[in-house]
């Protein structure tokens, strides 16, 4: 179980994905993230969602709505179960699809997001491709969107290297073996 760190649901428990080896954003890193980013009134996109904890943290802090993307059916079912438990199904959409297909669909539908959080599996080399897909589909970003990528120390360098023309790395925070890279989207 994971604990929501702030907002209306502070202290509420969220189930983790059963039978999957999943690395969750540590509680202290989640709290720090939402102390830095005020998500009240924002539209949130949670990529590689796992249990949906980032989306639930954002909704707990009065984000307008959230979309979770994960390619695992087990993860998507866990997110749905957690949303029902918290009573937030009307503010949460779950796309059970690979990010390479889901992001272009979101752009094509005209959806825009103010805060995008991506937590790809460490060591799987997703970051260059993720940044490329986001750059090709930059229409999903609102005017002043913020993109946060969680990575390992080694992969933090990939964020710097591949952030490209569509985004500007402006801050990096370290929480144990987890790094959060904050990027401002350039439109």
From TrEMBL:
CDD domains: AdoMet_MTases
Superkingdom assignment: Bacteria
Molecular-function annotations in GO: methyltransferase activity; nucleic acid binding
SUPFAM superfamilies hit by this protein: S-adenosyl-L-methionine-dependent methyltransferases (SSF53335)
GO biological process, one term: rRNA methylation
UniProt keywords, alphabetically: Methyltransferase, Transferase
This protein's record includes keyword Membrane: no
UniProt xrefs under InterPro entries: DNA_methylase_N6_adenine_CS, RNA_MeTrfase_RsmD, SAM-dependent_MTases_sf
Transferase found in the keyword field: yes
Name of one Pfam family that matches: Cons_hypoth95
Protein name: Methyltransferase
Organism in which the protein naturally occurs: Kosmotoga olearia (strain ATCC BAA-1733 / DSM 21960 / TBF 19.5.1)
């Amino acid at each position: 179980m994971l604990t929501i760190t702030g907002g209306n649901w502070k202290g509420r428990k969220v189930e983790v994905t059963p039978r999957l080896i999943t690395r969750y954003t540590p509680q202290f890193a989640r709290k720090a993230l939402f102390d830095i980013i005020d998500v009240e009134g924002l539209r949130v996109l949670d990529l590689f969602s796992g249990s949906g904890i980032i989306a639930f943290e954002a909704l707990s802090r009065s984000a307008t709505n959230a979309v979770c993307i994960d390619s695992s059916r087990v993860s998507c079912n866990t997110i749905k179960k957690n949303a029902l438990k918290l009573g937030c199904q009307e503010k949460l959409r779950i796309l059970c699809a690979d990010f390479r297909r889901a992001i272009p669909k979101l752009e094509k539908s005209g959806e825009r997001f103010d805060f995008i959080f991506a937590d790809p599996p460490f060591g799987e080399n997703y970051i260059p491709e993720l940044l490329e897909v986001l750059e090709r589909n930059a229409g999903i970003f609102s005017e002043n969107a913020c993109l946060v990528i969680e990575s390992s120390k080694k992969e933090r360098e990939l964020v710097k290297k591949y952030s490209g023309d569509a985004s500007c790395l402006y801050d990096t925070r370290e929480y144990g073996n987890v790094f959060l890279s904050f990027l401002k989207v350039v439109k």
